[in-house]
Write a structure and sequence with these properties.
Distance between the termini: 19 Å
Strand order of the largest sheet: 1-2
Radius of gyration: 14 Å
GO molecular function: GTP binding
Structural class: alpha+beta
InterPro entries: Tubulin, Tubulin/FtsZ_GTPase_sf
Number of helices: 2
Organism: Colletotrichum gloeosporioides (Anthracnose fungus)
Shape: elongated
Strand content: 5-15%
Protein name: Beta-tubulin
Keywords: GTP-binding, Microtubule, Nucleotide-binding
Length: about 70
């Protein structure tokens, strides 16, 4: 999960907090590698993630802010 640098708008902060929580709930480290201990964590992984090579998962969403002042 990429880390947001510098001052971030509230919506981006909410999005980052959401993904950090989802990564933790599904037993993923910050690189998307499964480190969990429960089959239950893997059961609905495809709701939020696509599986890539090497037991790595990537988020199925891209957060975009069209406000010019935030870029």
């Amino acid at each position: 999960l990429p880390t947001l640098k510098g001052p971030t708008p509230p919506c981006n902060q909410i999005g980052a907090a959401f993904w950090q929580n989802i990564f933790g709930e599904h037993g993923l480290d910050s690189n998307g590698v499964y480190k969990g201990t429960s089959e239950l964590q893997l059961e609905r992984m495809s709701v939020y993630f696509n599986e890539a090579s090497g037991n790595k998962y990537v988020p199925r969403a891209v957060l975009v802010d069209l406000e010019p002042g935030t870029m």
